[in-house]
Design goal:
Layout: E1 4-8, H1 13-28, H2 32-43, H3 55-58, E2 62-66, E3 72-76, E4 84-88, H4 109-125, E5 130-135, H5 154-164, E6 169-173, E7 188-191, H6 194-204, E8 212-216, H7 222-232, E9 236-243, E10 249-255, E11 262-270, H8 274-285, E12 290-298, H9 304-309, E13 313-319, E14 333-336, H10 339-351
Parallel strand pairs: 1-4, 4-5, 5-6, 6-7, 8-9, 8-11, 11-12, 12-13, 13-14
Antiparallel strand pairs: 2-3, 9-10
Helix pairs in contact: 1-10, 6-7
């Protein structure tokens, strides 16, 4: 099939590969009729005369490597002229274990950002018709406003860089704040994960559902927690907190009833785990029986896994928007994949179909 290609850098190639496999599978089954029309229009032949779509028809190899001085080099190895290319690159911290220990690799979030920008620029200079940046995790999203004088709005700057590089569209998952969509002057599709968490809990932990309360660790995440609560037919509550310069956090009070209940903490980002640990302690002080957590983006920075092991949390669910090489085998952590939703969104964007049912809505 001409027209659609998927390429990736070093951020999360496993997720990109899985998305590509699902795109191929869906085109050969669920979207076979659309593929018939595409093939007939572009080649003048019926689908019966054409072989099934293959992985290599969609997957686009790219070399993204590093010079000894740390500069990034990007080379797209297949022709993309006239193609709609999706660059799967969460702007997350690089994995602790490099893909190839013998070669220099990304060291910081900024290296991963540069990979994305250089891939987009390379694709546009190679005459790609359109480029969609698929950023399952959008870095710098927590710096989305000025909280004091003489500080940048870093999320807006990153949005500007992605747009100026030549991106036509952005596809993201659970932004820290939905208002970040307004930082872009190009279309941004904002996918949610509440249904993934709800489906996983219903299938693997039905015992959690009895006397369950879904709680947001702060007022700002209440809408996210409410979406999960509605899917689990559970009440929801929130914590009020105060954050000091340097990251210190004080949990002030619980707004809602948690005494004698099982609690599911729902958040978008799990970095050091400090917010979840303090929230879990406060909830247990207020009489909660057990505390679980569901966080979309599991960064697990520093010694977060060790800190969480000794915390009051019983179980943590995260997604694979960020590579989970270390966490996926941890007895406390369960990983839910976003690959199917991203593959579905990519196909619908490419075909010009609605993706409303996948989107985060603000009501």
């Amino acid at each position: 099939m001409n027209g659609l290609k998927i390429v990736t850098g070093n951020a999360n190639p496993e997720l990109a590969r899985r998305i590509t496999e699902l795109v191929v599978e869906k085109f050969n089954t669920k979207y076979a009729d659309f593929l018939d029309e595409l093939c007939r229009d572009r080649r003048g032949r019926l689908r019966e005369e054409l072989p099934p779509l293959r992985l290599e028809d969609v997957w686009c190899e790219a070399e993204v490597s590093y010079f000894p001085d740390g500069e990034v080099y990007a080379h797209v190895e297949k022709t993309v002229r006239g193609q709609y290319v999706f660059v799967v690159q969460p702007t997350c911290p690089p994995r602790a274990e490099p893909l190839d220990p013998k070669k220099p690799g990304p060291q910081t979030v900024n290296d991963i950002v540069m990979e994305l920008l250089l891939l987009v620029d390379a694709l546009r200079r190679a005459s790609a018709e359109r480029v969609c940046a698929v950023t399952p995790y959008f870095g710098y999203a927590r710096q989305d406003r000025k909280t004091e004088g003489r500080v940048p709005i870093s999320a807006r700057l990153l949005a500007n860089l992605i747009e100026r590089a030549g991106t036509s569209r952005v596809l993201a998952v659970e932004l820290h704040a939905s208002q970040i969509q307004g930082f872009f002057d190009i279309p941004l599709d904002h996918l949610r994960t509440d249904h993934l968490f709800a489906r996983h809990i219903q299938a693997h932990h039905p015992e959690w559902l009895e006397d369950l309360v879904v709680v947001s660790p702060d007022i700002g995440g209440l809408f996210r927690a409410r979406r999960v609560a509605e899917r689990l037919h559970a009440p929801f509550a929130t914590l009020a907190k105060r954050r000091f310069r340097g990251g210190d956090l004080e949990v002030l009070l619980v707004i809602g009833e948690v005494k004698g209940k099982k609690v599911l903490l729902v958040d978008d980002i799990l970095s050091t785990g400090g917010t979840l640990i303090r929230a879990a302690k406060k909830l247990l002080e207020e009489g909660a029986r057990e505390v679980y957590a569901a966080c979309t983006h599991g960064i697990f920075a520093g010694n977060a896994l060790q800190e969480l092991e000794s915390s009051p949390l019983s179980r943590i669910i995260v997604t694979d928007t960020i590579p989970q090489a270390a966490a996926k085998d941890h007895p406390m952590v369960e990983v839910v994949s976003v690959a199917d939703d991203l593959a579905e969104a990519i196909i619908r964007i490419y075909l010009g179909l609605s993706i409303s049912e996948l989107l985060v809505r603000g009501r």
